Amino acid sequence: MKKYIIQSLRLTLVLMVLLCVIYPLIVAFAGGFSKGNGGGEKISKNGKVVGYAAIGQSFTKPEYFWGRPSAVGYNAAGSAGSNKGPSNPDYLKEVSSRIDTLLKYNPSLKKADIPADMVTASGSGLDPNISEQGAIIQIKRIAAYRKINEKTVAELVVKNTQGPLLGLFGPSSVNVLKLNLALDELKK
């Protein structure tokens, strides 16, 4: 029995060193080669950090592109989904309300043209991106509110669209914060 206890303690110590010291150091080292050196890609405007590329923010003014809804109010400390399914009446009411809001501010839009990502929250509640279609359906509204040409806004969307990962995986997407900052730069 003593033999097994000693083996268990040795294995525990080896795994503690491996998983609690060596692995975190490797991850931190690898993170140093990413954008933001492991601290996330910070987005700055006039030398001041206005957000992070990987964390969604709330935009509600009609002259800005709206992001994906958040189940956690864009609180990065409480990242989570809503855990409500499509048969939940509260969830259906919430999605219906989001559809009504989109239709109210985008009168030329048809309900069938609204992409799902514009009315449903992501699993984390912090998705910083919307689909390319989600950006395209907002062009008319933004051009009207800002009194600029729709073509100019559409070109901005194209410039800020990221293709699928490695050209193969996932849909094209647009980072809402970066797009809205580029939109503000048009004023200048």
TrEMBL record:
Cell membrane as UniProt keyword: yes
Main localization category: membrane
Key word Transmembrane present: yes
Function, in words: Part of the high-affinity ATP-driven potassium transport (or Kdp) system, which catalyzes the hydrolysis of ATP coupled with the electrogenic transport of potassium into the cytoplasm. This subunit acts as a catalytic chaperone that increases the ATP-binding affinity of the ATP-hydrolyzing subunit KdpB by the formation of a transient KdpB/KdpC/ATP ternary complex.
Domain of life, source organism: Bacteria
Keywords associated with the record: ATP-binding, Cell membrane, Ion transport, Membrane, Nucleotide-binding, Potassium, Potassium transport, Transmembrane, Transmembrane helix, Transport
Subunit and interaction comment: The system is composed of three essential subunits: KdpA, KdpB and KdpC.
Protein name from the UniProt record: Potassium-transporting ATPase KdpC subunit
Family: Belongs to the KdpC family.
Annotated transmembrane regions: 12-33
Membrane topology: Single-pass membrane protein
Native organism: Pedobacter panaciterrae
Subcellular location: Cell membrane
